[in-house]
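Backbone-to-sequence.
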């Protein structure tokens, strides 16, 4: 049988894992999925993810693909895998795609969301899924600062210290900060790619602005500096979610049109 290329849509709680990518002496999402896939197909499966998520980071819409020669029906890749996987990882959908599809290289954009709980008392229930902040946050100042992110920029100032990357330039199509009931805040950002630690460093800097430790206009200055030492601290991992990976140009255009009209 000719090899089949299978695309998976995956949701996971990253609390118990050392990130997405397989590592020696540390349990990862990729390892757990590959082990379950190998049991299901009786093949040695290598999974290609759309990108890495760090330890403690969650995903609502991670995408990965793999090749197999099994004749299992598509339904088996969702139902069968979900029977084998632990409760903190689930396959939302399985789709057979063209042989050339590559979960990482075919991605046009990704959407990340960061969740904060801004209230006087911590939440025992949500402690692994948000950043608790008891102090006042100036939402207007944060929103004013975010405008500087839209467009194409060198994001070196917001990548993890010591990172080595050939091209730190990324295009941000949309970025927003929304406040909801009961003290919840959500920062969402859509870009053609993200440097390691970029979203968490942006959130840490935006929180500094919301607390009055920096001015809204400082974000643009930090961005222009390309100097990590100028930015704020990285926000904790547990508040970060990979929401969606976009592969269709029309989907991207709809999203960017919607963002520009807000």
């Amino acid at each position: 049988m000719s090899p089949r290329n299978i695309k998976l849509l995956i949701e996971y709680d990253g609390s118990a894992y050392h990130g997405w990518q397989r590592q020696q002496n540390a349990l990862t999402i990729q390892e757990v999925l590959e082990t379950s896939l190998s049991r299901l197909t009786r093949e040695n499966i290598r999974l290609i993810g759309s990108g890495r998520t760090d330890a403690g980071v969650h995903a609502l819409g991670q995408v990965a693909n793999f090749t197999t020669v099994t004749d299992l029906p598509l339904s088996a890749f969702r139902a069968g895998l979900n029977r084998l996987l632990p409760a903190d990882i689930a396959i939302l959908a399985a789709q057979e795609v063209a042989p050339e599809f590559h979960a990482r290289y075919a991605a046009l954009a990704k959407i990340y969301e960061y969740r904060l709980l801004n209230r006087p008392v911590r939440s025992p229930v949500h402690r692994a899924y948000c950043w608790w902040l008891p102090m006042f946050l100036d939402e207007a100042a944060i929103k004013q600062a975010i405008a500087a992110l839209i467009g194409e920029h060198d994001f070196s100032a917001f990548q993890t210290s010591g990172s080595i990357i050939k091209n730190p330039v990324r295009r941000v199509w949309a970025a927003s900060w929304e406040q909801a009931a009961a003290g919840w805040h959500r920062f969402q950002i859509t870009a053609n790619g993200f440097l390691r630690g970029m979203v968490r460093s942006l959130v840490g800097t935006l929180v500094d602005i919301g607390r009055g430790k920096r001015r809204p206009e400082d974000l643009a200055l930090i961005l222009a500096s390309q100097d990590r030492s100028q930015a704020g601290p990285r926000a904790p991992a547990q508040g970060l979610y990979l929401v969606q990976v976009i592969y269709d140009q029309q989907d991207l255009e709809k999203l960017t049109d919607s963002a520009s009209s807000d």
